[in-house]
Design brief:
single chain, about 100 residues, mainly alpha, two-stranded antiparallel ribbon, 3 helices
């Protein structure tokens, strides 16, 4: 029996892992603030996907600290990846040529 939700989780994990591997390779080749922020973006985004999968499977329960009524991990995983991407873009734009 084919479960579309499980297939989608597998695709997310595989593609996220490939992106994380590529970001680590980029960071090892270019040691710049932009590449480090890009690596942090990819890793936090991948961690966010893993967290969402674990929550949907019921492995992680929602008994956690809350900020303004929002679970702290949800807030962190929703806010950190765009912040790191923003910083990476700012560092790329500010780089002098």
């Amino acid at each position: 029996m084919f479960e579309p939700e499980i297939f989608l989780h597998c695709v997310r994990l595989i593609l996220g892992g490939l992106c994380a591997f590529a970001a680590i390779l980029l960071c090892s080749k270019k040691r710049s603030a932009a590449s480090l922020c890009l690596l942090a973006f990819v890793l936090t985004f991948y961690a966010s996907e893993v967290y969402k999968i674990l929550r949907s499977l019921g492995i992680i329960l929602e008994r956690q600290a809350k900020l303004f009524g929002i679970p702290a991990l949800d807030l962190a995983f929703d806010a950190l990846p765009p912040l790191f991407l923003f910083l990476a873009i700012i560092f790329m734009l500010s780089k002098k040529r």
